[in-house]
């Protein structure tokens, strides 16, 4: 009844039922809404779940989950999510907009009041405590945990800062994250980037002594047989294309540019233990950041 069309990313709101019948197209939110209408009309309890931003690629997603007698439910997802929320009819008392201080603004996705966190209904989760290394902007009591999506950091979870640290609850695993403040207009890095391994171990990428040499042949990670289920924006290094290497040091810092040839593009004297990002000049900046482990590139 409703086919996907990315043009509807430009639509200011979700479509209503009659609008979808007329257009026959929409975005993920529209499709999940129509599925909800059909199921609920037939006494099937379904929820509308979403991730504000994928953790391994650009964009976001919304979908449906059938609920059991305990009111819980999940559905298969085919990309990596660091956080999953469920839309609710009632306003939620623990929403971040109500926990913010007076005159404190909350990032776009988290400023809503009608959602609840259901990440742990989908996957094992980890509570992450971060020591904040950057002072908070004035009137800021909340810090945020962000995923890298579409060439930028996007806040997907909040936490109350206390005595220079903050704990972010129920985070998905196998993800790259950054703690940040929000000054009402932009996110400000608050600590070094971190990764959560699939076993729940947390690693901060603060930098170490020494240097790395890196040969770039592709910015696409090796994902194995499930590559078709977990599409990740990628570029193959092309002859004549200019590439810039960025190193994270409280922000992306340029480590120079190289022109691609028929040989791997080599960058030398890279500060060790940091997060890196190679982007094609004049591209869409959808390449993924990576770390270097055991002399090899590991993408996130």
Main beta sheet, described? 6 strands, antiparallel
Q: Count of DSSP helices? A: 3
Strand content: 35-45%
SSE string, helices as H and strands as E: EHEHEEEHEEEEEEEEEEEEEEEE
Overall shape: it is globular
Rounded radius of gyration (Å): 21 Å
Number of domains: 2
> Ranges with pLDDT <50 over ≥5 residues?
220-234
Kindly report how far apart the N and C termini lie.
36 Å
Q: What share of the residues lie within helices? A: under 10%
Give the rounded overall mean pLDDT.
Answer: 89
- Count all strands and give the number: 21
Helix and strand composition category:
mainly beta
Describe the protein in words.
The protein has about 300 residues and is mostly beta strands. The chain folds into two domains: about 80-205, no CATH class; about 210-300, no CATH class. About 10% of the residues lie in helices and about 35% in strands. The protein has three helices and 21 strands. The strands form seven sheets. Strands 8, 9, 11, 12, 13 and 14 form a six-stranded antiparallel sheet that branches. Strands 4-3-5-6 form a four-stranded antiparallel sheet, with helices on one face. Strands 17-16-19 form a three-stranded antiparallel sheet, with no helix packed on it. Helix 1 links the parallel strand 1 and strand 2 (about 25). The radius of gyration is 21 Å and the shape is globular. Residues about 220-235 have low confidence and may be disordered.
């Amino acid at each position: 009844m409703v086919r996907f069309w990315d043009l509807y990313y430009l639509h200011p709101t979700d479509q209503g039922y009659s609008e979808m019948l007329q257009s026959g197209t929409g975005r993920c939110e529209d499709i999940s809404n129509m599925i909800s209408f059909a199921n609920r009309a037939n006494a099937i309890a379904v929820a509308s779940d979403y991730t504000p931003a994928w953790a391994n690629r650009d964009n976001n997603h919304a979908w449906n989950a059938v609920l059991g007698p305990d009111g819980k439910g999940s559905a298969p997802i085919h990309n990596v999510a660091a956080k999953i929320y469920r839309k609710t009819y009632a306003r939620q008392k623990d929403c971040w907009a109500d926990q913010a201080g007076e005159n404190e603004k909350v990032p776009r996705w988290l400023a809503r009041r009608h959602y609840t966190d259901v990440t742990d209904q989908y996957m094992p989760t980890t509570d992450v405590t971060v020591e904040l290394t950057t002072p908070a902007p004035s009137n800021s009591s909340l810090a945020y945990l962000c995923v890298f999506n579409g060439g930028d950091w996007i806040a997907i979870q909040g936490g109350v800062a206390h005595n220079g640290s903050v704990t972010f609850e129920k985070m998905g695993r196998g993800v790259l994250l950054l703690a940040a403040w929000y000054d009402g207009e932009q996110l400000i890095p608050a600590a070094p980037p971190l990764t959560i391994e699939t076993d729940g171990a947390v690693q901060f990428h603060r930098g170490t002594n020494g240097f790395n040499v890196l040969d770039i042949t592709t910015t696409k990670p090796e994902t194995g047989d499930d590559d078709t289920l977990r599409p990740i924006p990628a570029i193959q290094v092309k002859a004549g294309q200019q590439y810039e290497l960025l190193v994270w040091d409280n922000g992306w810092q340029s480590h120079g540019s190289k022109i691609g040839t028929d040989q791997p593009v080599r960058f030398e004297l890279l500060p060790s233990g940091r997060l890196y990002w190679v982007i094609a000049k004049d591209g869409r900046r959808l390449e993924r950041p990576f770390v270097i482990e055991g002399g090899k590139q590991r993408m996130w």
